[in-house]
Design brief:
The protein is of the alpha/beta class. The protein has a single domain (14-247), classed as Protein-Tyrosine Phosphatase, Chain A (Alpha-Beta Complex), CATH 3.90.190. The chain has helices at residues 43-52, 63-68, 91-98, 104-114, 116-131, 149-160, 165-173, 182-189, 196-202, 208-222, 225-233, 237-247; strands at residues 14-15, 32-35, 54-59, 78-81, 138-142. A five-stranded mixed beta sheet has the order 1-2-5-3-4. β3, α2 and β4 form a beta-alpha-beta unit. The two termini are 16 Å apart.
């Protein structure tokens, strides 16, 4: 199976099936997709996703982005608006107190995942992941570039499913392959009247320290990743067991 799905009109669309876990299982294919902007999908691409079994589309973009580059309505998937921004909670304060910002993206990621509003967005994401429990049905989550807001979502779900940190990092860094044509990325994603931080993130390459800083901050404030899932996202051991049953084989 292909990891990168080159569907016309999609940016950074990737299959998450096939990744191994520490328990010896793997993520099911045709169950979970991550992506950037999908507003320009062609009829052929939409038909591919229909056959793939796509039922849920989780959109992490801001309301402005969703209005400017709206996901296409279809008769086979439902769109769930789940904006990560604007942050309104305590994430930046905690991140600054932690004092271990190793990169620009790492600083942003720490703020989002420690922030009450950011956590609200990813809690809804996990709730929808748990809803996606029927065979031959799949979920796609996306933002604009498919790197930052989507990247954080992928980090969370892959780690929750038991994928090791090295594999999670490798998946995250795959995003850099799409940055060969930065002019196209800038033209497609950047909004002159939009959020400057989002624009800057879209044009910043993924880096290794962003991942390590996220894991460090979560461990510092929550003790363990499992405690973060429970306390911040409402995923207790029972729900985590169900999540693994849905996505692993």
């Amino acid at each position: 199976m292909k990891r990168i799905l080159n569907l016309e009109g999609a940016i950074n669309l990737r299959e998450l099936g096939g990744y191994k876990t520490a328990s010896g299982q793997q993520i099911k294919y045709n169950k979970l997709l991550r992506s950037g902007d999908i507003s320009n999908l062609t009829p052929e691409a939409l038909n591919y996703l229909k056959k793939y079994g796509l039922k849920y589309v989780v959109d992490f973009r801001s309301e402005r982005e969703q209005n400017a580059w709206a996901d296409q309505d279809t008769n086979f998937y439902k769109i769930y608006s789940d904006p990560v921004y604007p942050l309104k909670g305590n994430g930046e304060k905690l991140m600054n107190a932690f004092g271990r910002q190793e990169s620009y993206l790492g600083m942003i990621y720490q703020s989002v995942l420690l922030d009450k509003y950011g956590q609200r967005a990813y809690k809804l994401f996990f709730d929808l992941l748990l809803e996606n429990d029927q065979p031959n049905e799949s979920l796609l989550f996306h933002c604009a570039a498919g790197k930052d807001r989507t990247g954080m979502g992928a980090i969370l779900v892959l780690k929750a499913l038991g994928v090791d940190d090295a594999t999670i990092t490798k998946d995250y860094l795959l995003t850099n392959l799409m940055y060969a044509d930065t002019a196209t990325i800038a033209r497609t994603l950047n909004d002159e009247k939009g959020n400057e931080d989002i624009n800057k993130m879209n044009m910043t390459k993924a880096d290794l320290s962003s991942i390590t800083s996220v894991f460090s901050a979560i461990e510092h404030y929550y003790g363990s990743f499992e405690d973060y899932l429970d306390s911040a996202l409402g995923i207790n051991s029972k729900k985590l067991k169900k999540l693994k049953k849905i996505y692993l084989e």
